[in-house]
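S.,

Sequence below, as promised.
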Amino acid sequence: MEKVRRIERVVALTKLLVDMPSRLFPLSYFSERFGTAKSTLSEDMVTIKQALQQFGLGTLETVAGAAGGVRFLPRREGEREQAVLQELAFRLKEPERIIAGGFLYMTDLLFQPALMAQIGEVFMTRLAHLRPDYIMTVETKGIPLAFMTARAFDLPLVIVRQGSKVTEGPSVSINYVSGSTRRIQTMSLPKRALPVGARVLLIDDFMKAGGTAKGMADLAMEVGAEVVGTGVLIATAEPQRKLVEGYTSLLMLHEVDEWSKKIDIRPIE
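The prediction came back faster than expected:
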């Protein structure tokens, strides 16, 4: 193999690590790939870690032991976190986003990969202590948000459907009451989607009363999984009491005035 200069190796290492956040790589993987001693790679990792931390881009974590290695943690904290949330709130305040009934049009933002990747990193930073095994969401608008959160955690994503699909095999279904419309609806989950005892983090794009989140939690428990937390992009200030407790919301929607075209939405620190 042609000898690789250190600067080239450091760039390649950074690319590999950042492309797969939270993925644990043994040093032997990089040693074989670059034909470089582990001691030399350790020095490279120190350089990469210092650069990432200096510019607030995340950090590298070293795990000791035979099964250890190194992984990139895309932590988005402090000013970097608030910057993305402030920008999102600013865009959601655009008067033309108001839809009849006092709703906000936000689909265009939810389907922007770069933006959702940043939001996923915020969720990962705030909720990593919950140590989930799976990320769960309900179709369809919340899928990009949950997918990018799963990427930041390096975890599988499980999608709850409104109804069941023959192509997914036997499913468990429950009826739940929508917290906002008070209508009875059905959601289902393939039996093989979650193993018994799995730790599940729920992610959704919007919460008013919490009916959908509660439905997902009930469904997860039906298949023997444990819900360890709930992350929501936007929650409404009213009603104050939701159907789920202990959720984490990134933005709070206080008011949507259709007449004055005023939208009061703010980040939650």
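The first strand starts at residue 59 and ends at 63.

Coffee later?
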